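[Q] Does anyone have a clean C-alpha cell version of this?
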Amino acid sequence: MSGINGFDGAIMAWVQTHCHNAFTDGLFPVLTYLGEAGAVWIVLALIFLCRKRTRYAGILTLCAMAAGFLLGEVLLKNAVCRERPFALFPDYTVLLISPPSGFSFPSGHTCASFAAATVLSCQFKKRGIPALLLAGLIGFSRIFLFVHYPTDVLAGAILGAACGLLTCWAAEKIKQRNKWKKSEEK
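[A] Here you go.
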C-alpha cells in the first residue's frame, strides 16, 4: 500500500490478507453498525437515565460523547481532511458496508465508543470492561472494513478516552465544589 505511512499500510495489509473469512465478514459490519452515530452507547445512556441509580453515569456518558463529537467530528475531521482508505485505494478491497461520507481522521465510531466505555469504566469499574472490549471491537471493525486507517482508530480511541476521563474528572470537581459551597452556607 504505497502512498500511506508504513504503520498504517502494514496493519491494513495484514488485516485485509489474514482476517477476512465468512464469520468475520458477517460480524464486523454488525459491530460497526452498533457504533453508527454512537447508537449503542446512546441507547445505553438513555436506559441509564431512566433509573435513578444509574442516571449520573448516563449523563456523563452523553456529555463525554458530545465532547468527542465536537472535538473529533466538527473540529479535527474538518481540519485534517484525510481521505478514507477505500477512496484512495478503490481496487484494494470490496467494501462490506455502504461507503461512509466525510473524512477519515479521527474515527468517530471509535471516539464515541471509547468516550462512553471510559465513562462506564470509571463509574462501574470491572463492569466497564465489556464496554471497553466492545469499543475496541468497534474500532477494529473500522480498519477491517477498510473505512479508516489504524492511526484514525488510534486517534479516535485516545480522543474518546480523554473525553471520558476529563468528563468524569470535571464532574467530580463540580461535585466537590458543590459540597464545599453547601458546607460554607451552613
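[Q] Thanks! Anything notable?
[A] The radius of gyration is 18 Å.
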